[in-house]
Structure formats: C-alpha cells, structure tokens
User: Which sequence fits this backbone?
C-alpha cells in the first residue's frame, strides 16, 4: 500500500483488517424510514397500518436480513402477529433469500458464523454479556462477567457484536437486540447461566442500593441514574434465584421510578410478584414493598389499592420499628383515602406531618392544601400549597410539586386572576415535562388548558391538550390521568362539538371504575350535564346535574355545588332565578369571583336588570352586593325552609347526615360556636327543637 499511494481499496468485512492506513467506517443499521420501506417492499401482502411495521423494524434493529425474513411472513401472519413472534425471533426468521451463501441465508446461521469466528475466551464473554437487557458499562460488565475483560470487549466491538456509545463521559455498551437474543440463547445453553444471572441481579441490586441516598436529596439525579438501567432492572427482577431476598430488596428500591415514569402498571406487577415471594412476611422489607405498592398505585391506579396497601405497610412497619417506612405509609394512606373522604385524609396527613420529615412533611402539607382547595378555602389553600411547593421543588420532587402547582393555579384562577393562574399552570407543565409520564404531564396540561379556556383562548387550550392526548392514546394500559378527559370534554363543548364532549366526559367517568363517591365524579357529571343539554338530551342532563349536586353536597365541594346549581338553572326555567341566586351566594361566600361573573350575567339575562352586568374594570364584588340587596328587597321569608341562607342550608345538610358540631365546623371551616349559632337560627326559622325533627324536615326538602 505504501508503494502505491494513489490506490484506494474499499473492502467490506465484519471486523477491521488491521492494515496501516486503514480507516474504519461502521455501516449503521437502516434508518427508520428505510427499514419500513424495505419491509413493505419485501412483504408479500399489504402490511396495513404503518405503526406496527415501524415497531417491528425497530425491534429488528434495522438489520436488512432480519427485516427481509420477517416481511416474508406477511403472506401467513399479520404484522402484529409477526411482532409477537419476534419474542422467539430465531425460530421465526428461518427462511432466507435464495442464491446467497449459507451463512447469510438465515438469521441464526449469520449469527452462528460470527460467533464461530471468535476465540474461546471471547465466546465466553459474548454469551455472558447476553444477560444485559439494557446495555452496560465497563464496570457493570466486569462485575458480571469477571476477570480482565477489556481486551475481549474491544474485540467484540471491532467485530460489530457490541456497539460502543462514547458520547458521554462514561462509555455505554450494548448489543443490538437480535445479537443479544443469540448471546442469551448461548448463555442458556451453557452451564453458567445461573451464576451469571445471580451476578447480574447482585450488580443491579448494588447499583440501586448505592444510589438510594440520592432519593432524599435529588430525585432528578436518582431517576436519571436508575432509569438508564430500566431494562436490566426488569430482567434482574424476573430472575428467581434460590434465595428470594435479593429480588425483594431490588423491588423495594425501585417504587419511586415507577411512581414517576409511565411504567406504573408494570411496577405494580413486579412489586406484587416480589411481595408474593414471601406473602406472610412481617418484616421491614415487606413493609417497604407494600409502601412501594401504594406509592406506585398513587399515579397508576389509586382507587381500591393505594389505601389498603399503605395501611398494611404502616402496620408491619410499626411492628418492625421502621419509622421511615411507617411515616411514608401514613402519608400514602392519607392520599389513598383522599379521593373518598377529605376529613379522614386531613387527619392522616396531620399525623404524617407531625411524625415525618422531608418529603413526608412536604407531601402532607401539599395534600392538606389540595383538600382546602377542594373545600374552597382558597386563602388557606394557597399558603399550604406554596409552602409545600418550595420544599418539594428544592428536593427534586417534581411529580408532587407539579400536582400542587396545578391546584394552586386553579385556586388563583377561581379568585379571578387569570394571568397569575396561567403563569402557575405553565410552571406546573414545565415541572412535569421531564418525567415524560402520563399522570403528571397529563394532569398539568389539563390545568393549563382549563386556564386558557377561562381566558377564551381555545386554540391555546387545544395546543396544551393535543400532544398529551396523543401520548396517552399510545399507552399499553389506560393510564390514570384525572382531569384530562374532563378538560378535553369541556374544550369540545366550547368549540361547538357537544357530541364529542359527551364521549370525553364519559371517558372521565369510566376512569373512576363506576365509583361516584370520589371527588372527581361531581365535577365530571356537571360537565356531562352541560354536554347532554347541548345535544338535546334534557332528561339525561337533569339526571346528571342532580347527581352532581347531591355528590357535591355530600362530599363538601361548594364550587362544584354552585356549578351544578347553575347547570340545573339552565334546565329548569321556572326555578332559574332562584337557582342562579343560590349559586351566586355560594360563589361569593367562598371568593369564587370568576364564576360569580357568570352567575351575574345569567341573572341579568333573566331579569333584564342591566345593573347585574359587570362593566369593564368594575369590581365584581360591587355587583354581587347589589344582587344581594336586590334579592333581599324582593323579600326572603322570615320562616320556613325558603328563609334559610345558603350557609344555614349547608349546616342543616351536614347535621341531617349525623355530623357533630365540631365535624360540621371542620367541614365548613367555621368555629364550633358559629355552628351552634347557625343551628339556633335554623331551629327558630323552621320551628323545630332538636336534631331528630330537623333531620326529618330536611329529608323532605333535600331531594335536589
């Protein structure tokens, strides 16, 4: 070559030739587009939709021979069936093109030829590396494969059996999936699979336990370090060694990963499997596993699972003296029951807040802020939520922080500050975005879209929702994203597509699994009532509105109660003025100034009183006060049910449900003495002398 400097030789080979002056250019796999084109070109039948073809080509690593062999099955199997067959790709891809060397005729023959060219030591290293499902570093390879393997690793890279990614500070290696399947099969056929898989499990366990201290300091850094090994962790957890403890310990170290990413359903399955390895255990490790199950359920499927798992974790952790797990379990119990019972959730959160530290305290404060928000005590809610957000964000707890930001944005919106609400909602979206999950990203987008709808910016609301809807549509399991379908339904309703709105509101209802006692239900039913009214299904709309009203009153959600009253007013012209005034009274009492304007507009239209319209720049409070005076001049009766104020009626409802004065005070955010005063006024107006008589009378009037 030196004697012929003008000569250039282009050679193809599976490894470098090793000659002086050689420049190596590694032929990459086919691009995604080229791979799809090759598949469709070689397919005997029309392949139909492109998405399954793209997935098949990606799983075949863009290797032309593998793609050709898979495409040849299209005369017998659909593309989804071919995809399922790739789990055993060497059994499926057995018949290659004619007129080529035998070693190129089938995928397994091609792989065997490359394997047989290795020396004995490199063959051993090759099959051992097949245990890594998600790539590896030099350190993890040494821990699993043993010995001085750097030279062998270099030779496998040179032979294109291992790919080295040197872009980051630490080189990460991987096998193409087709090659890894072959290596794993060689490992399974050897007498060392058990040893290597035990080492792989131990290596993953060591990595996760070494990183555990980061959880309390920087969850972003912890998540980044653990998430890169997700495929390896899955493989390690699927191994069943003689001693189950390593698998239990590994599973117990990972719930935060599944809580924060989109693999919650898989995490629930893996945690259940780890719990079932010792189902009767009452040790601290079992408590951690159960607390982990509750933590993952929180964002994957909380209804019917989170509370029960957390309670079991609390009991076992308390027995075992594991105070940290007990504190977390107490918080998760509060979150689990929160959907059904605000008062119990508040009490449990108070316990967690008093006993806990760090995340447990901030999480408890955030939950209490959410409860105050839903009870429409927004001044108190804002203080609690801002306090929690500061602590959560500083620690990298962006999941709960984004949810708290969404509740805070909503409180600010209800108070009438649309610009401030948008700023907070956008911060919530930014906080959630790095998680790339369904639950947090979807919920944050729903809040931002709701703010934009309140501002009349339907295009901006669509822009916020559409990417998340596409993301969720691609989920393997229906994800738990409260508020997303409801916000989409509201957007479709405002955009003039009420039939689509009905579909979306029904989707949100289906998310609840048929349970209407959760706080999400009355909000959705109110929107559904509006959509049904718009499509002309009046009787169904009335039914949905009345269910929403009853649930809002039972749960204790004044804003939703007012929304339901407003919707029922649109369905009952004879009572419209009365119902709108009732809604206005509730809204004004709780500082819901944004929706007060809606009530005033409706009343102005019904009464032809222009003074009930809020003029540009006018303080809505002035118009509310005028509406109250005008209503008073028409005369509220001095006795009888119609004489009760909205607050007195709320006290009656709770008293009729059997709540004590302190409980009523907690529910309505008033002192015990104030409750007593309201009840004395009620007794006088209704002519009753005790709670039994009051309950009987209330039963006659609380049908709606």
Assistant:
């Amino acid at each position: 070559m030196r004697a012929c400097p003008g000569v250039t030789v282009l050679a193809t080979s599976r490894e470098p030739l090793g000659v002086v002056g050689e420049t190596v250019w590694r032929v990459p796999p086919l691009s995604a587009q080229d791979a799809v084109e090759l598949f469709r070109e070689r397919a005997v039948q029309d392949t139909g939709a492109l998405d399954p073809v793209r997935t098949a080509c990606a799983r075949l690593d863009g290797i032309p021979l593998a793609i050709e062999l898979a495409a040849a099955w299209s005369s017998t199997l659909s593309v989804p069936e071919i995809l399922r067959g790739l789990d055993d790709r060497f059994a499926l891809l057995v018949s290659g093109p004619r007129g080529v060397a035998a070693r190129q005729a089938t995928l397994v023959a091609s792989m065997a030829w490359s394997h047989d060219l290795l020396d004995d030591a490199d063959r051993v290293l090759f099959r051992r590396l097949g245990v890594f499902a998600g790539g590896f570093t030099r350190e993890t390879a040494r821990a699993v494969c043993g010995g001085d393997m750097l030279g062998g690793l270099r030779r496998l890279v040179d032979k294109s059996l291992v790919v080295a990614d040197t872009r980051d500070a630490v080189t990460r290696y991987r096998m193409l999936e087709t090659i890894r399947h072959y290596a794993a099969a060689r490992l399974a056929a050897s007498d060392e699979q058990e040893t290597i898989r035990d080492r792989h499990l131990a290596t993953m366990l060591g990595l996760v336990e070494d990183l555990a201290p980061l959880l309390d300091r920087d969850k972003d850094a912890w998540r980044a370090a653990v998430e890169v090994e997700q495929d390896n962790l899955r493989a390690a957890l699927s191994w069943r060694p003689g001693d189950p403890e390593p698998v239990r310990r590994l599973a117990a170290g990972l719930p935060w990963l599944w809580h924060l990413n989109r693999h919650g359903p898989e995490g629930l399955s893996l945690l259940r499997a780890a719990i079932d390895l010792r189902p009767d255990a009452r040790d601290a490790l079992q408590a951690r596993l159960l607390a982990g199950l509750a933590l993952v359920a929180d964002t994957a499927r909380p209804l019917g699972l989170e509370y029960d798992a957390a309670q079991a974790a609390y009991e076992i952790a308390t027995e075992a003296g594991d105070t940290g797990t007990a504190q977390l379990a107490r918080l998760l119990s509060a979150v689990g029951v929160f959907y059904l019972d605000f008062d119990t959730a508040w009490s449990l959160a108070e316990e967690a807040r008093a006993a806990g530290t760090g995340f447990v305290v901030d999480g408890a404060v955030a939950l209490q802020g959410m409860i105050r928000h839903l009870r429409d005590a927004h001044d108190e809610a804002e203080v609690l939520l801002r306090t929690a957000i500061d602590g959560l964000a500083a620690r990298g707890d962006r999941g709960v922080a984004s949810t708290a930001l969404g509740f805070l944005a909503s409180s600010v919106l209800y108070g009438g500050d649309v610009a401030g609400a948008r700023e907070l909602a956008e911060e919530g979206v930014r906080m959630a975005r790095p998680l790339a999950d369904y639950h947090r990203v979807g919920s944050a987008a729903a809040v931002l879209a709701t703010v934009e709808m309140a501002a009349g910016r339907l295009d901006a609301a669509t822009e916020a929702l559409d990417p998340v809807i596409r993301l969720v549509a691609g989920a393997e399991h229906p994800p738990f994203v409260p508020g997303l379908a409801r916000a989409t339904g509201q957007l479709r309703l405002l955009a003039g597509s009420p039939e689509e709105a009905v579909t979306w509101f029904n989707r949100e209802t289906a998310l609840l699994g048929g349970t209407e006692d959760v706080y999400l239900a009355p909000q959705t039913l109110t929107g559904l009532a509006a959509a049904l009214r718009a499509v002309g299904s009046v009787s169904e709309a009335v039914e949905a509105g009345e269910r929403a009203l009853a649930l809002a009153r039972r749960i204790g959600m004044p804003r939703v109660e007012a929304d339901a009253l407003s919707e029922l007013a649109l369905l009952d012209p004879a009572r419209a003025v009365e119902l709108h005034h009732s809604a206005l009274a509730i809204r004004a009492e709780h500082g819901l100034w944004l929706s007060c304007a809606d009530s005033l507009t409706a009343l102005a239209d019904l009464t032809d009183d222009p003074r009930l319209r809020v003029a540009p720049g006018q303080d809505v409070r002035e118009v509310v006060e005028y509406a109250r005076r005008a209503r008073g001049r028409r005369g509220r009766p001095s006795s009888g049910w119609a004489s009760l104020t909205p607050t007195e009626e709320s006290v009656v409802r709770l008293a009729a449900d059997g709540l004590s004065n302190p409980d009523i005070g907690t529910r309505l955010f008033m002192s015990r003495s104030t409750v007593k005063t309201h009840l004395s006024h009620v007794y006088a107006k209704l002519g009753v002398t005790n709670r039994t008589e009051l309950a009987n009378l209330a039963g006659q009037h609380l049908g709606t």
Summary: The CA atoms of residues 439 and 481 lie 5 Å apart. DSSP finds 38 helices and two strands in the chain. Residues 118-199 form a domain with the Arc Repressor Mutant, subunit A fold (CATH 1.10.10.10). The beta strands are 163-165, 172-174.
